[in-house]
Amino acid sequence: MPALLAGAEHYDVPVLDDGTVRLRRLEPRDVPQLALNCADPAAAEFTTVPLGYTEDDARWYVGQFVPEAWRAGREYNWAAVDAATDRLWGTVGLNALRGTTADVGLNFGPHARGTGAAEAACRLLLDHAFPALGLTYAYWMAKVPNWASRKLAWKLGFRSPVRIDGFMEQRGASVDAWILTLAAGDPRTPTTAWDGPPAPGSAGPERRP
Ligand SMILES: CC(C)(COP(=O)(O)OP(=O)(O)OC[C@H]1O[C@@H](n2cnc3c(N)ncnc32)[C@H](O)[C@@H]1OP(=O)(O)O)[C@@H](O)C(=O)NCCC(=O)NCCS
């Protein structure tokens, strides 16, 4: 069994903040933006959110699903907000906790993409979760061909991408997935050159590091 985060019994969510992005407990005031984020076409295409997502779905997620999963030590999901305005950027969390490993899951609204908020939120999560839960590995699963997700994982140091056809369950269907791995001691920066397509609208391939 994986370790329980301190305070999980009472749903006491640690606040994590880098001065720009804050991770905090999801609150009812996040419902309208959460519903918009989950109704976005990219969320429907690449995540497991229900289709036709409504504010009722968001209220259930905030008020029931997240607290219950947190207390059970099954999933730990945070709101990622603008530290200055408290506006919700998206959600980020650890799911599929097993042994000393967990998957990172996230969904950010269109207004957050390209701002660096998702990267900052993942860094806060990883810096906290590895020691707090004694994790040895974190995994990243992206539905093929979610290049935005795969590139973010690469920026964070996730490595060794493998493709497993039919590995991801999405609304009852088995869809193809990339899995990437980050060990506790791995650098949180790319260790290989980017091997995906260039950013849309850019001149050519990138070579980092
Ligand atoms: C995945 C997600 C969190 C990434 O957020 P982000 O890092 O702010 O996203 P960006 O739009 O900046 O894209 C990340 C990078 O991928 C690149 N990218 C995006 N789409 C791409 C494509 N089709 N081909 C090649 N590169 C692409 C971007 O140019 C960017 O690279 P850059 O920083 O070098 O310019 C966000 O897109 C999201 O929440 N999407 C909807 C839900 C989802 O896919 N969740 C993840 C499930 S695993």
UniProtKB/TrEMBL annotation:
Domain N-acetyltransferase intervals: 21-159
Keywords tagged on the record: Transferase
Keyword Cell membrane: no
Stretches for region Disordered: 188-209
GO molecular function, one term: acyltransferase activity, transferring groups other than amino-acyl groups
Keyword Transferase in record: yes
InterPro entries (UniProt xref): Acyl_CoA_acyltransferase (IPR016181), GNAT_dom (IPR000182), N-acetyltransferase (IPR051531)
Protein name, entry field: Acetyltransferase
Species this protein is from: Kocuria flava
Lineage: Bacteria, Bacillati, Actinomycetota, Actinomycetes, Micrococcales
